[in-house]
Design a protein that fits this description.
The chain is mainly alpha-helical. It has a single domain, classed as Up-down Bundle (Growth Hormone, Chain: A). It has 18 helices and no strands. Helix 1 runs antiparallel to helix 10 and helix 14 runs antiparallel to helix 15. The two termini are about 25 Å apart. The relative contact order is 0.17.
Length: about 425
């Protein structure tokens, strides 16, 4: 295989990043603004709106944290991974489409939680497929390619949705109808681009199929927790990942809600976050290339430090140009820290237990972001300031940095 040349299976795996990223871009941009309009119509204040959005995101990620490891352990059994992945993906797709219907802000949040659970759960199995679709020495590059093409590819349905939403009057349709079309468009994009992976993926690393899959999954998970006592490099990485990626996903989940609560124009917020996606594309590819020359643990530390600076900068943010600058800086490091963390973890775990371990990875990743979103919501209500609410993320990043330093030392000592 020529160095750097992607195989068909690697391309199909990357394509799922393009597919599902459309949903998460929609959720971090248009959906919070639409929810804001529903909340305003119900007389909800801006501070409470941000808090409720944070609480909903926390519920979704907490549910995934509870069910993810068990499903991940089941998916390690022969011929289980693809079916469970398919079910999770379809919950997300149908949930995305169903966002078209609610007019009550409470029901809308409930449907959002269901869609987000499907999305996040599907990523457990998708991430664990990395060891099946490529070789260890190619994981950094393939993982980075996934995030990179996900960022730029998701812009296609997003721009189409943005045109429909902003041009609803010119099209002669209501805002509600425009939003409904956008939700269906993104759901269709997600489903269609997933089909090549579903058709060609085969599980090559697996544990034996068991008669009592659910019961045995709990037993296997318990044994894995016990084994981690002798695998400090994995345990410390997961603990550090719990903190630093919690901050990353909180920024992703609440960026638009944060800007909206500060009173910034909705169109400006959407365009600024589109900038994040465009900037993230080349920088994710760049981190994948740089990882060939520098250790990825060093590059992860660089990303954590950058995010700490971003969180501190947000404390005084009150100008539109500052939000644009923040959006660009987030784009520079977002893909790098996600892609390198995924490939770093895939390298230090047993490949035949990838689903099980990535279930734990998801607890400490997307599942952990319930802490960040809840803390931002709580501190915003306690201080009455959205800026100080976001400031708690700087502390979370610093804790993650210190823990990751010790994790990397333990990993190096084992080599």
């Amino acid at each position: 295989m020529a160095r750097g040349k992607l195989t068909k299976l690697e391309k199909y795996w990357i394509l799922y990043d393009v597919a599902n990223s459309a949903f998460i871009l929609l959720v971090t941009t248009i959906v919070p603004i639409y929810f804001n309009s529903l909340a305003e119509a119900a007389g909800i204040s801006e501070v409470d709106y941000l808090a409720y959005w944070g609480y909903a995101a926390s519920v979704a990620t907490l549910v995934v944290a509870l069910i993810g490891p068990v499903f991940g352990t089941m998916a390690d059994m022969k011929n289980y991974k693809k079916p469970i992945f398919t079910i999770s993906m379809m919950v997300g797709v149908l949930g995305c489409a169903a966002l078209s219907f609610p007019t009550s802000w409470v029901i809308f949040l409930a449907v959002f939680v269901i869609a987000k659970v499907g999305f996040s759960t599907s990523l457990i199995f998708y991430d664990s497929m990395l060891s099946d679709v490529t070789e260890p020495e190619r994981m950094d590059e393939v993982s980075s390619q996934g995030y990179a093409w996900g960022y730029i590819g998701s812009c296609v349905p997003f721009i189409a949705s943005l045109g429909i939403v902003l041009g609803n009057e010119a099209l002669g349709i209501s805002m509600t109808v425009a939003m409904g079309i956008s939700f269906f468009l993104n759901a269709a994009w997600w489903l269609v681009l997933t089909l090549p992976l579903l058709r060609h993926y085969k599980q090559t690393h697996y544990s034996p199929k068991r008669q009592h899959a659910v019961r045995d999954a709990f037993g296997t998970l318990y044994r894995t927790f016990r084994e981690m006592k002798s695998q400090k490099h994995i345990f410390l990485f997961l603990l550090s990942f719990f903190f630093f990626i919690d901050g990353v996903y909180t920024v992703i989940d609440m960026a638009t809600a944060f800007g909206s609560a500060l009173g910034f124009d909705s169109t400006m917020l959407l365009l600024a976050l589109l900038l994040t996606q465009i900037v993230a594309f080349p920088f994710a590819l760049l981190f994948g290339k740089v990882a060939k020359k520098y250790r990825n643990d060093v590059l992860i530390k660089v990303c954590i430090v950058a995010y700490t600076a971003i969180a501190l900068f947000a404390i005084q943010l009150d100008q539109a140009w500052e939000f644009w600058l923040l959006a660009g800086c987030v784009g520079m490091f977002q893909g790098g820290i996600q892609a390198l963390s995924r490939s770093y973890f895939a390298k230090i775990i047993p490949p035949e237990k990838a689903g099980e371990y990535f279930g734990l990875f998801d607890i400490c990743g997307k599942g952990a972001s319930f802490m960040g979103t809840a803390l931002v919501g709580l501190s915003t209500q306690l201080t009455g300031s959205t800026n100080w609410g976001v400031s708690v993320l700087a502390v979370i990043f610093l804790i993650g940095l210190v823990l990751f330093h010790f994790a990397a030392k333990q990993s190096s000592a084992r080599k």
